[in-house]
Amino acid sequence: MAIEAFLEALDQLAQAAQRTFEAATDDESLEAARIEFLGAKNGRLKTVQKGLGAVPGPDKRAAGQRFNEVRDLIQNALQNAKERIQAGSSGESASDPRFDPTLPGWTRRMGRQHPIAQSIAELVDIMGRLGFSLEDGPEIEDERHNFDALNIPSDHPARDPLENFYISGGDSQVLRLLRSQTSTVQIRVMENRKPPIRIIALGRVYRPDTADPTHYPMFHQMEGLLVDRHVTMADLKETLRLFANCYLGTDVQVRFRPSFFPFTEPSVEVDFFWNDRWLEFGGAGMVDPNVLRAVGFDPDEVTGFAFGLGVERLCMRRFGITDIRDLYTNDVRFLRQF
Ligand code: FA5
Q1: Of all helices (H) and strands (E), which one includes residue 266?
Q2: Average pLDDT over residues 7-13
Q3: Which residues pair with residue 141 across a beta bridge?
């Protein structure tokens, strides 16, 4: 074998070995590379070494020297790769003079869900266990679903432009608005389904309320609706008590105060006694017979209960948040706590 061919084979081997050791990412791939190039029996270095015997006598010494250099080079490449893998994927090695072990490390923070998203997931889970399935409805509503079908007459103060976000333009026949309550979904479900119905709806609602510690112009409600034969106020009370026990703990009590909503009769406000205080969380009642008739149900055949709870207030009590505005200021120092 001419010395040129031998040296060429050595160069190619050195390059291939370096590339392969640099590409190794863990102990297994490095060991596989070591066997490929430095294996005692069939390693590629061994194979090339066999060609040394065929190099003509006068060139043998030079060829042997180059062979030793390439062998050292490959062994060094193996050693470097070993250190790199031991030092971890950062590529820093303790023997690297640029590595300063006194510098603070990189902390990677875990992302987390917003407290409202966490609350919604838990509310869906609890109500699911009580047999309520989740329904959805649009945030841009028409007057029929937000008011008319809910027995809210056209002169009712709840329809006042100062109390709602009406949307101008579009189809002039239908006045649209950002929904002010999730009770709209009650109607959408009853229009499309026959009893028994047992659903919740969870989503954003909008009211031009001035922001203060317990009010925000955009907030979430959890609506519940159950329509079936022989549904009574006792079922409503028991369902809300069970819900409150699951979400806020077994030390919570539930109180119903007489109230008025056009779409329920009788109507109540729902308070939970928790941490030494009564707090209002929502409204509820027995579905008004007018509402049942408007969707084609016979009030002599079926009855129902409905409730609408403020999700922010539930979430605030649960996490000990005292100002609703903190939920929407998007200050990660605050949100990171939950
Ligand atoms: C209603 O919206 C009725 N639709 C509830 C209902 C449903 C009654 C089904 C009967 C049957 P109300 O306007 O009271 O009710 O609002 C319910 C809850 O939403 C309140 O108790 C409160 O927890 C929450 N809420 C109301 N306004 C705001 C606001 N601006 N910011 C945060 N939460 C609010």
Answers
A1: strand 264-274
A2: 93
A3: 177
CA-nearest of 79, 231, 205, 46 to 139 is 205
**Which residue's CA is the nearest one to ligand 1's atom 22?**
310
Please tell me if the CB atom of residue 305 comes closer than 6 angstroms to any atom of ligand 1.
no
Spell out the alpha helix ranges (H) of 193-321.
233-248, 289-294, 311-319
The shares of helix, strand and coil residues in the chain, as percent rounded to the nearest 5, are 45, 20, 35
Give the domain extent around 61. 3-90
Q: Are 256 and 284 a contacting pair, CB within 8 Å?
A: yes
For residues 221-247, average pLDDT = 97
3-class secondary-structure state, position 111: coil
Q: How far is the CA of 231 from the centre of ligand 1 (A)?
A: 23
Tens of pLDDT along 281-336?
999 999 999 999 999 999 999 999 999 999 999 999 999 999 999 999 999 999 99
Q: Are residues 261 and 218 in the same domain?
A: yes
Residue 74 burial by Cβ neighbours in a 10 Å radius (0-12, 13-18, 19+): buried
| Average pLDDT across the chain, whole number | 92
CATH number, residue 281:
3.30.930.10
Do 155 and 58 fall into the same domain? no
Q: CA 290 → CA 125, 286, 300, distances in Å?
A: 32, 11, 12
Regarding the beta carbon of 281 and ligand 1, being less than 6 Å apart is answered yes
Q: 337 CA distance to ligand 1 centroid (A)?
A: 27
